[in-house]
Amino acid sequence: MQSRKLRFNKTDKKKWPIVVSIIIASILIIVPVTWIGLHNWDLDKSLSALNIATQADEPTQIISDTQDKSTGETTDEEDQNPVPNEKPKEIETPDESPDEPKESPSPPVEKPANNMYIPNQKHPTSATIIDGFLVVNKRYPLPTDYNIGEDPNARAGFNQMAAAAKLDGFDLMAFSTFRSFERQEVLYNQYVEKDGQQIADQYSARPGYSEHQTGLAFDIGEKNFEQHWASVSFGETPAGVWVAQNAHFYGFTLRYPLGKEEITGYMHESWHYRYVGVEAATDMYMHKQTLEEYLEL
Ligand SMILES: [Zn+2]
């Protein structure tokens, strides 16, 4: 027993530096790997967390998108990264001169809003065509004398849709299509008189800004259900649901959808459809896009 023990100790002593080296090497590998694993393999975040945990005065701070750059504080990690696929983070060196302005040298150019009228905007001498599409919204008016009448392709598309709807038991009507500048002027002034301009602007276009003046906008309803005409309730009727699901096959797009008020500038209108052709209408339907989004206005 004695000799065996001695022999063992002898061997153990010889192996001791190797064993210690292996343990140290293992720790050096396992600790960072475990750390990264625990932090969802997000190296930047892990380093950021490590930085906080050790209170180290690192020469370079890693600042994530959601961090408050003015204070350099890191918020709770769960709140910080709710989305797994986040944008790559920027690495910033510490601000040597705190008096320096924080703004970037070239501020991003702000896109003009489509949902607001441009004050004192003059009516143009020609219509706005973008990527082949006639565009009318609060930013793009029509000339006052743009008086082209109802678009024949839009009418043909509507007639086809109405024929298809009839097979499914719905008798569709286009109760308002082309409207001249003068007609819109009369309507708008009536609405302003009734509700005031601020409210009227939410549901009615100013003269020259109505899509109905293009001849491409069709207000759709169901015959004998006039109570739903020009009413959001049309969208909840079986006929309204049918139109919402099928209009794109005939080249029409729901122009002012629910939830897109900020983009279109108008309240949801379940009855107002705009003819854009089958291809564009289908694209917009599939991607749940408004004309503004489709044309990236
Ligand atoms: Zn309309």
Automatic annotation (TrEMBL):
The keyword Membrane applies. SUPFAM superfamilies: Hedgehog/DD-peptidase. GO terms for biological process: proteolysis. This is D-alanyl-D-alanine carboxypeptidase family protein. Residues 152-277 form the D-alanyl-D-alanine carboxypeptidase-like core domain. Residues 58-120 are annotated as: Disordered. It holds the Pfam family VanY. The keyword Endoplasmic reticulum does not apply. The chain crosses the membrane at residues 16-38. Keywords: Carboxypeptidase, Hydrolase, Membrane, Protease, Transmembrane, Transmembrane helix. One of its GO terms (molecular function) is carboxypeptidase activity.
